[in-house]
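Bit of a strange request maybe. I'm writing a small parser for structure token strings and I need a real example to test against, not something I typed by hand. Could someone generate the tokens for this chain?
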Amino acid sequence: MKTILKNVTLLPEYGYQSNPVHITVEDRRITSISTELPDTAGCEVVEGKGNLLIPGFYNIHCHAAMTLFRGYGEDLPLDRWLNERIFPAEDRLTAKSVNVATKLAIAEMLRGGIVSFSDMYMFEDAVADAVAEYGIKANLSRSIVSFDPDIDIRADSRFTETMDLIRGYHGYDDGRIRVDLSLHAEYTNVPRACRDLADYAKAYGFGMQIHLSETEKEHRECIERHGKTPAEFFLSTGVLDVPVTAAHCVWVEDHDIEILAQKGVSVAHNPVSNLKLGSGVMPLRKMLDRGVNVGLGTDGVASNNRLDLLREMQTAAILHKGVSRDPAITVASEMLPIATVNGARAQGRTDCGGIAVGNRADLVLIDRNSLHNMPAYDDYAMLAYSADRSDVMLTMVDGRILYRNGEYTSIDEERLRYEAREVFAHYFD
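Reply from user aminoacidic:
Good idea to test on real output. This should exercise your parser:
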């Protein structure tokens, strides 16, 4: 069945000076963009009323099931937050709790216009089940942690879980679910595990998700251990020879940025989580100027409290101005690609992230008439500075409307609330 998004406004970059326009979607893809209304017979028609249609948001660093720990480990630095609160709590996770917590995360993301997320966690088969059921896209990874210098990676239970995930879900539903490999971080892995996993990724064409230079302590201790920065460490072990998404990169040095650029690493900028944990501020301008592909991530809600890419984009848009004391260091028009097409590129989704005939129909309709958005002189500025996730009127993934005007099409919201309350009520008994 065709869907026509009627009377929508596109950003100036798409070249349609005469707005509104009409978008036709069929078989997951955009099949036409026209200023003339196509024949609507037999089509589902969505009246856009001149509101702004943009590509969907990509959350390229997330631990979705950590909705279970929202508000649980507050006002602590990363090392204490992990060791005193999060790691002990994670020891009690089950497949059921992860599945329900992930469903809650997906519902929150869809309501805010997120069409895809990159996840690094445990019980990823339970995460995959939630993604399959609710219709969102995801790149899923079971992170490896290793402390035995003689580890046989293929005998490790985490690697076995990854192989099961690949067999069960990689490429599921025409590529809606993809599986990546993952190393949690340099400080949680031995060199042999890094080399062996990198060799496997290279041999079989998988991407990789890692944490990199999130805190000054992590960065400095890596230099003490190996005589290398974390970026240099991962370079020396072959990890950066495959497509990598590196989360945080707050404490990278100038030569690290050159490495990331030369190796084609995608960087997940997580401004809210990094600020809340007191970790610091990633050098966004240096990254962009050196050609690094930078996307946005929320991290888990235990260190953020929301899965909101608009908030991440707007924080990034103003944070670097204040740190540098240069109001022009970021400009409104460059922020949306960081939240959309750059994220799609990081996930290896080359036909996603933009509004063009032939692209996947991952689309979000934004209310331009909210009181806090009026007058909409500049839609780029509206997105970067004033819009709120409550302005999301519609979220479409692969041509399927999953959220529209406060209601989900693939989620029984009341059942989800009940299941979530049941899990939360018993988790910390």
